[in-house]
Structures are given as C-alpha cells and as structure tokens.
Write a structure and sequence with these properties.
Number of domains: 1
Shape: globular
Strand content: under 5%
Distance between the termini: 18 Å
Helix content: over 70%
Radius of gyration: 18 Å
Structural class: mainly alpha
C-alpha cells in the first residue's frame, strides 16, 4: 500500500461516520478477495486468474494514470515493471495458488503478515531500526505461521498453502519499500495503475499458455471479475481516498479487518469452518500487527 499526497493527508478528518464506514467497507472488500480466489482458482488456475485480476484492476485505475501521464513520461518504467512483478503479480500468484489448496481464511490470515514483514525488510535491507516491540511482533507472527501450518482442513495439511501466503506477504513487504524509494513523488493511484498494468503485460504470455482448456463457468467468471474490478481496482480508489482524508497510519488499521472479514465471508458463503489452529494463528499474527503498529507510533 502506498502513501498519498502529504498536503491532502494533513487535512483534518471530519467528525462523521463516513470514514469509519468506508474503512469497514474496505476491510470487507479486501477480505472478500480471498473468497473470490477460492471460488475461481479451481476453474481458471492461478496464472490465468491473476492475469484477469491484474488487467481488470489496471483498467479501473487507468484514468488516474492518464491524468498523471505527464509525470510518467519521465518515470523509471524499469522499476515500475519490477515492482509490478514483486508487489502485484508474484504475491497474487502465491495467494491464488494457496486458494486452490486451502480454505479462503488461510490466505486472509497470512496476508496480515505484511505489516511485520515490512518492518523486517526495512531492518534487513535498508538499515531501518526495528526495536524490541517489532521483534516481538515478528516472533508472534512466525509463531502464528507455525500454528497455522500445523493445522489441517478437510483432512489435508496446510503447510504449503501457508508457506505460499507467508511468501506473498513477504513480497508485499519488499514491494512497499521499493515503491517508497523508487517511485516517490508520483501520484499513488497512478502508480497502482502502472504497476498493475505492467504486471499484466509481463504475465500475459504465461497466462495464455496456461489458459484453461475448458471455458470457466459463469460463477468463476463472476468471481474473477469481482476480484479484479472490486477487490483490486475500486478498492484502491477507496483506499487512497481514505489516506487523503484520515492519513496513512489510520487507514492502515484496515489490516485488522481483512483477516476477520475473509474468515467471515468464507464461513457465511462457502461454509468453511473456523478451526482452532486458524483462530490461534489469527490472534498471534494480529497481535503481532498491533505490536508493530504501536511501535511505529
């Protein structure tokens, strides 16, 4: 996730219910993305599904890129393409693969590791101080991964899907640092459009090669369309609007809502049960997120 214009972020938030309701809506939308991946991944396959998601999201955000086209004429497109792979294509592939082999709640829970992993990458690669609380946050997050990986769903072990989700969260953490250091000063929504579009172009040959021989059913197409248009394109619009109104720090509290929403959506619409390992892992990981954000403040 990216920061928005400093001047806009400094504007005091109005005391109404608009921001809390939009924050809850964003958490529900991003939580639903794991439901949609679970529904569509089996029919599309991970690569084709991610191609649809990236392309649809980029199209929704294209007006922002067009409006900022003057600044992007001089932009570092090599870095934009690399960040598109690291921050969009590869993590989406990992989460989509996990969705084929594990309940949707597993991906939603592991996605919360993005916060402590961002702190770890900053410390390991860029010399940022990490502090005692963030070390404890990382320990809690890793403990959650171990607990979750040791569980089972429908009789199958969750080790590899959990590893895929955790790897995706790590890539998000790397991508966030690259965006901050390589694409600073560019309009965030336009950056999202450019990185998503670049990732879609780079992934296209592989998606065509892996396109399913049998046409996916309407249910899978509907889930894929919602994943790209709603959970990627429109969700970014809502995210940046919140950042502009209430600031990046307060908007980042959506991290707490996504795993909860993902588990609730999966339980309500797919009948997926919340197992004890999932509950324990969620508490450990979100507890680590709370420690990490407390340390940041």
């Amino acid at each position: 996730m990216h920061a928005n214009a400093t001047a806009l972020a400094a504007v005091p938030a109005r005391r109404d219910l608009r921001s809390p309701s939009e924050l809850a809506a964003l958490g529900a939308i991003w939580g639903a993305s794991y439901l949609f991946m679970r529904v569509a991944a089996g029919d599309f396959g991970a690569v084709a599904l991610v191609e649809v998601r990236l392309a649809a999201g980029a199209l929704v955000l294209l007006p922002y890129l067009w409006r900022a086209r003057g600044a992007f004429a001089r932009a570092p497109w090599g870095w934009i393409a690399a960040i598109g792979l690291i921050n969009s294509a590869l993590p989406s592939l990992l989460f989509a693969w996990a969705a084929r082999h594990a309940p949707a709640g597993v991906g939603a829970i592991t996605s919360a590791l993005t916060v402590p992993f961002t702190a770890l990458v900053g410390f390991a690669c860029f010399g940022e101080p990490i502090g005692r609380r963030r070390v404890l946050a990382l320990a809690a997050g890793f403990a959650g991964v171990v607990v979750l990986a040791g569980g089972k769903a429908e009789g199958a072990a969750l080790g590899w899907p959990v590893a895929a989700g955790a790897s995706g969260a790590l890539l998000y953490g790397i991508g966030l640092h690259l965006v901050r250091r390589r694409l600073a000063g560019l309009a965030p929504a336009a950056v999202a459009a450019a990185t998503l579009g670049s990732a879609a172009v780079l992934l296209l040959p592989f998606a065509l090669a892996a396109w399913p021989a049998q046409t996916p059913p309407p249910r899978a197409w509907g889930a894929a369309a919602l994943l790209g248009v709603l959970c990627t394109g429109l969700a970014y619009v809502l995210y940046y609007r919140l950042v502009a109104r209430i600031g990046a720090a307060r908007t980042s509290t959506v991290t707490y809502l996504v795993p909860l929403a993902g588990v609730l959506w999966a339980g309500a619409l797919l009948g997926e049960p919340l197992t004890w390992p999932m509950a324990a892992a969620g508490l450990l990981i979100l507890g680590g997120v709370a420690l990490s954000q407390s340390a940041r403040r």
